[in-house]
Amino acid sequence: MKVLVPVKRVIDYNVKVRVKADGSGVDLANVKMSMNPFDEIAVEQAIRLKETGQAEEVVAVSIGVKQAQETLRTALAMGADRAILVVAADDVHTDIEPLSVAKILAKIVEEEQPGLVLCGKQAIDNDMNATGQMLSALLGWSQATFASEVEVAGDKAKVTREVDGGLQTIEVTMPTIITVDLRLNEPRYASLPNIMKAKKKPLDEKTAADYGVDVSPRLSVVKTEEPAARAAGIKVGSVDELVAKLKEAGAV
Amino acid sequence: MTTYGLTEEHQMITETVRSFVEKEIYPHEELVERTGEVPEEIAQEIKRKTIELGFYACNFPESVGCAGLSHVEFALVERELGRGSMALNHFFGRPQNILMACEGEQIERYLMPAVRGEKMDALAMTEPGAGSDVRGMKCSAMRDGGDWVVNGTKHFISGAEHADFVIVFIATGEDQTPKGPKKRITAFLVDRGTPGFTIRDGYKSVSHRGYKNMILEFDDCRLPDTQVLGEVDSGFEVMNTWLYATRITVAAMSVGRARRAFDYALDYAAQREQFGQPIGKFQGVSFQLADMVTEIDAADLLTLAAADRLDRDLPANREIASAKLYASEMLARVTDAAIQLHGGMGLMDDYPLERFWRDARVERIWDGTSEIQRHIISRDMLRALGA
Lengths: 252, 387
What we know:
Chain A: Heterodimer of an alpha and a beta subunit. The complex is a heterodimer of chains A (252) and B (387). With 252 residues, chain A is α/β, with parallel strands linked by helices.
């Protein structure tokens, strides 16, 4: 089985995000960019499937600016076998919308014929949480979102989903799309031998036009603003005081 | 961050080691600082993870099963390790390069176990009476039958408390020269537990708590010829061949630590408000930050450029000395300025700044003092002119 793992280049989770002065978005100039943490979990899961012999090949794909090549190299250094870069924007501030991403991914799936697409449940930059679901609709494949446990057996996959009320276990028919949640695994560091090998692994460069997908935006961002600053907390000396303060604040 | 001349691999090595240091070293730093010890289970965990990642002994060549990093790549590893506690990152093992001088059965007894992480090494040169003046060493070995009998003391021996064996430089004779008597020196491999050889606690140092300096004592310690590393009386050649590049480590680590201190300073300058505005808006502070980052970048480039010369087999003695001198002195200025910028809080152990500042002090002293580096730099230029 071949596993396709889409990865997105996003602002690093450690960076203090700053809104651009004109409110048009987030300032990404000279900011550290990394692989979306949920996608890292997806890459890790794909590599584990390969290590257990359930997958033969792991293909990473990224859609965005040319610099996403670095993100793909990271996936290769973690252990992916090859990568596809789809250049769909010149400006680092351009975000390709989920439907366009899903359409390009659908074309890649047609070409590559993977048995499984593993992706992050959402990207930490805009939290859309849509690409996996849209891809499922476009392909007519089953989907299992928010996975915290994945078991692949033959033409079925058993997936434990983290839903609001707790955990839900479902069975889906392969090929399928699984979007992964935070607790599925802990991604590995790239090992030194894999870092050295990463450059020799194939990385195909394509454009959105190669797949005949129009990536022009359908949505417009009206305004971006900083969240309201959180007021400082207070320290309480005892449980009684804590309860009293909570009552005062009308919280209990 | 400096990216001049660096490739994607360089970037990935940097990021991997940095994230390792942030996740595996930082969380234990306070404990080590408070107790002056590295708990055994933490040491073993760091070692195990380093081996798993293929970074253990990455300064050693592929011929002995290691990563064979170039000097630039290894400098990047050291730079990122420099951000974290030396006591802890000792277990991100980087055995002494000099072990490549092992021959015959020494290879299986010392070199291979060291690069596989099965045995740890330490290097002993300094003595109470022989610091910068290596040839002034008193620790000596006399021939007795087919063996050597060693007597003397070594001190400031980092890593010796964890070492299974120590590479020790010992005087094995004296030549009369027109400039006076000159010691002949030999490198020996000495196993922990060899009769007559004791490793004991050294002094309490202001810098790098938990990264202990140990005292080695030799009292009629008997060593057979099989323990000689390299040739008898060729200690200086062994030293020059293999220890030449190690000063880059001090330079690279100084750069890493300076950047960590700088990150605190920059953040504080943006957050801390006095007189109704962030202190970074005051020119006295902002210009200080500008000077700090400029000096850090300069030291970074000087260090990588010296390493690059080694990779190109160009003479690098002066360049390495310049990098070691400048980076260690830069670190002193940057950690000092970072504290000044934090005011009183900078001295409190709520922040790691007072630790960086204390740790910075030794960098100008060990692996050749600033004065020795200046001597090397100036001699390199003047000797060529016959002066």
